[in-house]
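Hi there,

I know you've been waiting on this one. I reran it after we fixed the sequence typo, so this is the corrected version. Both the input and the resulting structure follow.
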Amino acid sequence: MKYYPEGTNPALLKRFDTVNELKDAINSREIVEGVVTVCDSQHNLYVDLGGFTGVLPRLEGALGILEGTSRDIALISKVNRKVCFRIMGLHRDEKGGLVPVLSRRNVQLECKKEYIDKLSTGDIIRARVTRLESFGAFIDIGCGINSLIPVDFLSVSRINHTSERLKNGEIINAVLKSTDDNKLTFSLKELLGTWEENAARFTSGETVTGIVRSVEDYGVFVELAPNLAGLADPKDGIQKGQKVSVFVKSISKARMKIKLAIVEAFPKTDEVPELEYYITEPHIDEWLYSPPASSKIIYTKF
């Protein structure tokens, strides 16, 4: 793997103390990372290289700035964050100091051509969560290039906001769902297990922990795992987001139903459940969530 999401490969974070080290990096065209310390009024970025401070000119700061398809917030938001780049050359500033000139755009163009453009639907990649919105989670799929996982693609269990499923900066697996209009959309739920795989973790008669996701007149939907929820009997005072202990009354594979009873309710939690992946292959062609005996079919074809 050459084109890592930014900030995920410590080996790329380099320190340069001599001119010869800078020249070696220029000649080898290696991809390195550094922390942005300043974004000036012209939106040029300045990067800590150890013994030197490199400059990322505005038009070299991100793919799309030159083309007009990305806004300058893509640069401003990088202060105090790691970015990838190549050292393209050296020049003297007004005071005669040596300044390494960097290009992040160069790396991103190569990443797109050699890696991202070669992905097919069903391919599973590593990505880093960069921003959480109500409609979806933005992920760095390589060298700071962002894509989206819509909120409905994060899990089978429904959530109101992506922050209920993911954390900023988290490293996740994601599967390429579509490439419509050359825009890549990813999904997560297909990697988090089928109904049977998740239900096998629970047994009738035991009491377990869950999170309330929805409160209806006829009952309370409690998430037991990101891809599994059960229905509990109505109970006064229960609110969305509360952690609860629930008694597992019954598990029906044919109906794809888990009946629960709330034993005790606890305060609302900001805790994000840990993700457990059930697919280890680098590619999938299809995914069937429903048990074969179920009358309700939940299926993804890639």
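Quick highlight: Residues 223 and 229 are 4 Å apart (CA to CA).

Best,
R. S.
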